Amino acid sequence: MQKIHNNRAWWLVLPVFLLVAFSALIPLMTVVNYSVQDIFGPGQAFFVGTEWFKEVLGDERLQDSLIRQFMFSGAVLLIQIPLGIGVALMMPKSGIKGSLCLILIAIPLLIPWNVVGTIWQVFARGDIGLFGWGLNELGFDYNYTGNTVDAWLTVLLMDVWHWTPLVALLCYSGLRAIPEAFYQAAEIDRASKWAVFRYIQLPRLKSVLIIAVLLRFMDSFMIYTEPFVLTGGGPGSSTTFLSQTLTTMAIGQFDLGRASAFSLIYFLIVLLISWLFFTAITQDDKEK
Amino acid sequence: MKQSRFKNVGITLFIAFVLTPVYWLLNMSFKTNQEILGGLTLFPRTFTLDNYAVIFSDPSWYNGYLNSMTYVAMNVVITLLVALPAAYAFSRYKFLGDKHLFFWLLSNRMAPPAVFLLPFFQLYSSIGLFDTHIAVALAHCLFTVPLAVWILEGFMKGVPREYDEMAFIDGYSFPRFFIKVFLPMIRSGIGVTAFFTFMFSWVELLLARTLTSVDAQPIGAIMTRTIGASGIDWGVLSAAGALTIIPGILVIWFVRNHVAKGFALGRV
After folding, report:
1. What is the 3 state secondary structure string of chain A?
2. What is the reported pTM?
């Protein structure tokens, strides 16, 4: 659509700008302010420049949790995006069955995140949980509070349970937006199921998939509440992801300078990767 | 026909995967604690509503639900009020800095809440909004508004601008056109946006818990009370968890047709 150049459109955007700026810029500036100072008490702050940043970048605990974080987000995307597309393709197209599927599948999305942790806690425990008890009965030595691998798999399974529905929901909506004529044309051409998927459905899903990938990346990279409730970050620190490391540092140890410097680096990483996704995809569009 | 049976089996399996943990939570919520700890039972032997009675008879429990619903409702209203005109501007006009503004808005969706916890606490304390519903609603706008603008813009792009021009020729003023003509055309979009706004505000706990202490405390924070000196009260915890699912199901019920109608999103 041809857009008209009109700077008066700013008046329409102004409320959003003011609202978000209030909630975003002031706290961000506070974080920047902390990150370059060493604070001992009210009125006793010293400018330390980039000291905290250097310290944080060399901190091994943070590097470990950063690596864990990348592994987790990578696994999340690799599993949830294909699975979500698959589920969306399998969902009934319309009618009462379609609505019912939609509602049932959306349930995990609408559960508060701490309750998600609770659900999986009561589900995966060896003594009272169906999942943990069942695995033990089948002869697997499963214990998510003691074994690192089990803890990892449980957190990952929980996230798949929690968020695959979002991908499925977005894709389902995208699929419904494809006009029937496309399928009819494909039928006349005797296109195979795979060809229909590859050349009709997938390209048409692109816009919703971008949102799905971006949202899943951002949210998995910021995951906090669910593993905190489920495993508390353990055993050891095997499921302690970035947000939790940061929160412990800022609130638990009240180490403001270091936590703020770390916050900024964290924010920049998310921003950079999202920007890369964003440009890679839009670039691809322009070439066509 | 084979294909369709394969699909049915697949979707049934996935739904079973989604529902089993939820069933387990419901199962636990109807059991007594003796039964929960006594051994594994697939359905409650001694069916009890006591766990729910605990919640409904204690104001400090059920106020948690009311608090959560209050700030979520405020958040949805504020988000829609500011996002609708902004999305219209983005979908119809070019203006100074529009692309940068858009990415900046999205970048706030990317800020890890953990980054903002402490500054938020200080900001809202200093303007005297600490422990109020509006504080949580405003804080949640940080991530709901960008998403709402993004989704709405996609829907608005689908409406040809000829409609706008026709309305102006017919003598509609801008506000009247926007409310009487334009909004009804993107009904589905508003429904879908409200759904996502509700969803992300309802499930968030970290900010909500940090910005409240007593009067506006969300249900998620109150649930931690079940962990007492004698261990965790699994029954009440499960009942409280089960009740948090209901508002979400109601909301998806209302918007199911809008989601099923399909949307392809704009901008990218």
Report:
1. CCCEECHHHHHHHHHHHHHHHHHHHHHHHHHHHHHCEEEEECCEEEECCCHHHHHHHHCHHHHHHHHHHHHHHHHHHHHHHHHHHHHHHHCCCCHHHHHHHHHHHHHHHHCCHHHHHHHHHHHHCCCCCHHHHHHHHCCCCCCCCCCHHHHHHHHHHHHHHHHHHHHHHHHHHHHHCCCHHHHHHHHHCCCCHHHHHHHHHHHHHHHHHHHHHHHHHHHHHCCCHHHHHHCCCCCCCCCCCHHHHHHHHHHHCCCHHHHHHHHHHHHHHHHHHHHHHHHHHHHHHHHC
2. 0.86
